[in-house]
Structures are given as structure tokens and as C-alpha cells.
Amino acid sequence: MNQLLETTMKTAIKLGLALAALSTAPALAHEKHGHATFSAGEPGNPKKPARTIEILMNEMDYTPARIEVKRGEQIRFVLRNVGKEDHEFLLATTKENLAHAQEMKKHPHMEHDEPNAVRLAPSKTAEILWKFSKAGTFEFSCLIPDHRDYGMIGHVTVK
Fold this sequence. Notes:
The protein is α+β, with helices and mostly antiparallel strands and about 160 residues long.
């Protein structure tokens, strides 16, 4: 009986986290004509060339923390967690990241499965392929509670 209760509770927790993640999806992507659109551009096309930028994620910073790209340019971000804690890379506007950070405080173990976000354990590497189709300044930050507050923020300027 205890095992059944434990399994049921674990399932309920997972369902709650999944629903919380879905409730924050509008902060990351917006629906337009049935397709997700993002404030910082759009997912890249793997069949097209891309400039590679490696970003190291450490306690509590990104290297490099400032990047300049041209509007229409496609970037392959190679993200390496060289720190001792989990870290995230979430590319959006500052306003969207601040709103999502509030949700992360309620659900600190939330996993991201969006084309503009990734969470990495220490010593892990991931890639995000991104096309910057909109001009402006965008932010990438770690929204694990307190990480952004301690300075884990970077900026992409699209000219």
C-alpha cells in the first residue's frame, strides 16, 4: 500500500510540474497561425550555415556575456556547463525572463524543452541553433532560483 501511495504521489508531482511548465510557455513562445513565435527570433535551420559561438556556464556567469550578431544571422550556440551546479540558458526578452524566473521560484526543478532554452548538469554540453530575425537586445539568463539574481545574465545585440 505504501508503494502505491508513493507512486501516486510521484505521478501527481510530475503532473503538477508539467502543468506549471505549460503555464509558463507563453513567456517563452507565442502562438501565431498555429506556429510558435519567439521574441528573440526563431529556431535555426540545420541545413543552413551558422556561426558557432561557445558559451561557458559557470558559478555565476557566462563567458562571453555579451554577443553581437547581424539581423538574419544564424548562430549555433555550443553551451558548456563548466560549473559545479546545474545551469540554464534561456534566450528571450528581459521582461519574459523575469516573468519566467518567478515561475521557476515556485518550481525550481522545472525542465525546459523549448528551442530557445536548455538546462545542463555539470560537465554537460548542449547546442541551440538560433536565427536572429528581429533587431534589438535580448537576454540569456539562468532562471534557476537566485542564479539570475547573482549575475548569471548575458546579452545578445542584434543589429
